[in-house]
Every structure is written in C-alpha cells, then in structure tokens.
Design brief:
7 helices; 184 residues; mainly alpha; Four Helix Bundle (Hemerythrin (Met), subunit A); single chain
Length: 184
C-alpha cells in the first residue's frame, strides 16, 4: 500500500483539476489560487515520495504529466473563456501540447519508440506557463494591482518559451525518428 502513495497523490491532483477549473470559471480566483497551490504541493510530493519510497511506476510516469497538462491547459482555456488571457496564447499552449501528443501517438503507432522524456526546453516552458498562470490568477484577486504589471511580461514569456519548446520538440522528434530508422 505504501508504494501506491505517490500514485494516490498524483490522482489527488487529477481530481482537484476539475474543481479548480470550476472555481476559475466561476471567477472565484482566491479559491482557485489556493487550490492551485495545493495542487502544486501534490506535484512536488508525488515525485519526492516515488523517489524516497523507491516506488517509481509506469502508471505514475503517466499520471503526473496528465495531471499537470489537465490542470495547466485547462487553466489557460478557462482564463481565456473568462477574458483574462488572449485566445492566441491559449491556442499556442494547446497547439504545442497537441503537437507533442501527435508525435508520441505517431511514434507509438509506427515505430518501437516508447520513451518520451521531456526536454529541458519543455520543462522550462512548463515552468513559465505555471508561473504565468499564477500571475494571471493573482491579478484577478484583491491583490491584483500588485501583480498587474507582470501580465504583459508573462504573456511574452509564455509565447517565447512555448514557441521555442514546440520548435525544439519537432527537431528532437525528427532526430529520434531518424536515429530509429538507422537502428531499425
């Protein structure tokens, strides 16, 4: 049972995501921000527990990024629906994720490639997106005036980081496929 703990923590984040998105959609930004912080703690905790308990699992390797993407992409989508973020930025965030999913699906269907480790630029982009989402949320709370000046730099950073990450994933994917063809 103890070895299942990291996966249970990841599942907690998956179950929190719809509630957080509901709170954002209802414009209850204070609550959404609080629950986003709780979700962030679960994100750090599941990885820590998996390493500490030597309980890394294939299920955990899938649950963690799925929980992250559901919450992060969902946050951008609902913030856009609420008129907080520009549509093109949300489309860029979704577009990169769809590109990654399409590459992974194609690789799984047509090759023997099964390892899809995130790149450093993917991690940087995700970190930027998380920070930006928190800035967007804070800007909608009573403390919004303190964070309002960060919105434009956050939009720029997300656009730059996400765009570069997408280009890097395409390049990396092509290199993996070319290497696989030589080996296959």
């Amino acid at each position: 049972m103890i070895r299942a703990l990291p996966n249970l923590v990841s599942l907690t984040r998956l179950f929190l995501a719809p509630y957080i998105l509901w709170e954002i959609r209802g414009r209850h930004y204070d609550w959404a921000l609080l629950w986003c912080l709780v979700a962030g703690v679960t994100d750090a905790l599941d990885g820590f527990l998996a390493r500490r308990l030597h309980a890394e699992s294939r299920l955990g390797a899938y649950l963690d990024p799925v929980g992250d993407k559901l919450l992060l992409s969902g946050t951008f989508l609902v913030l856009w629906l609420n008129g907080v973020t520009p549509g093109w930025l949300t489309a860029l965030v979704f577009g990169r994720d769809i590109l990654i999913l399409l590459f992974a699906a194609g690789a799984m269907l047509f090759t023997r490639i099964r390892d899809f480790a995130p790149t450093i630029w993917g991690k940087v982009s995700t970190t930027i997106q998380i920070l930006a989402a928190l800035i967007f949320l804070v800007a909608q709370t009573e403390w919004g005036s303190a964070a309002g000046w960060l919105i434009s730099p956050a939009v720029f950073a997300v656009a730059l980081g996400t765009g570069w990450s997408a280009v890097h994933y395409v390049w990396t994917g092509l290199q993996i496929v070319r290497g696989h063809r030589r080996l296959g």
